[in-house]
Amino acid sequence: xxxxxxxxxxxxxxxxxxxxxxxxxxxxxxxxxxxxxxxxxxxxxxxxxxxxxxxxxxxxxxxxxxxxxxxxxxxxxxxxxxxxxxxxxxxxxxxxxxxxxxxxxxxxxxxxxxxxxxxxxxxxxxxxxxxxxxxxxxxxxxxxxxxxxxxxxxxxxxxxxxxxxxxxxxxxxxxxxxxxxxxxxxxxxxxxxxxxxxxxxxxxxxxxxxxxxxxxxxxxxxxxxxxxxxxxxxxxxxxxxxxxxxxxxxxxxxxxxxxxxxxxxxxxxxxxxxxxxxxxxxxxxxxxxxxxxxxxxxxxxxxxxxxxxxx
Length: 311
What we know:
Elements: H1 10-21, H2 30-37, H3 50-55, H4 66-76, E1 82-87, H5 93-99, H6 102-105, E2 108-114, H7 125-134, E3 146-149, E4 161-167, H8 176-185, E5 187-196, E6 205-207, H9 220-231, E7 235-238, E8 258-262, E9 267-271, E10 275-280, E11 286-290, E12 301-305
Parallel strand pairs: 1-2, 1-4, 2-3, 4-5, 6-11
Antiparallel strand pairs: 5-8, 7-8, 9-12, 10-11
């Protein structure tokens, strides 16, 4: 099947980003990150989920938070702070909140990857006062993450990361599966990739096929998970938290919002399919259609041993 999709140029991506983000604040706080990733943990009676359970052993606190995950990753690393990279992090406020804590500042180094560095110079006095009230010192230069001007989908990091997050980012990408592979490959061994969005972004990832072909679960994300399981790569995904009675909903591989993948030592993931078409919704979310796996004798994803060196 011939693809009608051509990857946009850097200038086209930049123009699209400027249009999509116009009028937005580009500054989610750490509480919002926690609410997205570990939904249910911020309720009065905390609720768990598959993603929450996956990282719970890293956290000493009763409730699972990203700060707790960072502390746990730091404790498991021999020497030095961990490296946390946020894909499409906007103003980097969540990172600033974390590193403004004197204890956390010794445990984590931060890098924000985005096409535009929104910074904090245009904040008004009310916004400055509010943010400084949340975490004194978070707007100081020493709390700012390092910044990489790049397309988060294809970015090459200078060094591996123990933690990579992508919050409210993946639904705007033209090749989300390739992005996940790229991010996984730049994790340190044992590192975590955490992806989360308010919408069930996985439902926008489909095969290019005629209506009625294939079963409900014959979707790229299911075959992606099949490859991870076959290679022994740990992961968890969920759409929502458990019920108040602790009942966990059946997992639908075509409908989830949160995903965590742990880097299996000395492995890399490569994508063996390609984008055929991308449709942009009125909300600027991307519906991405991949070459059907039935058009090839190969699986759409390969997990291989790697001798990758970072320079």
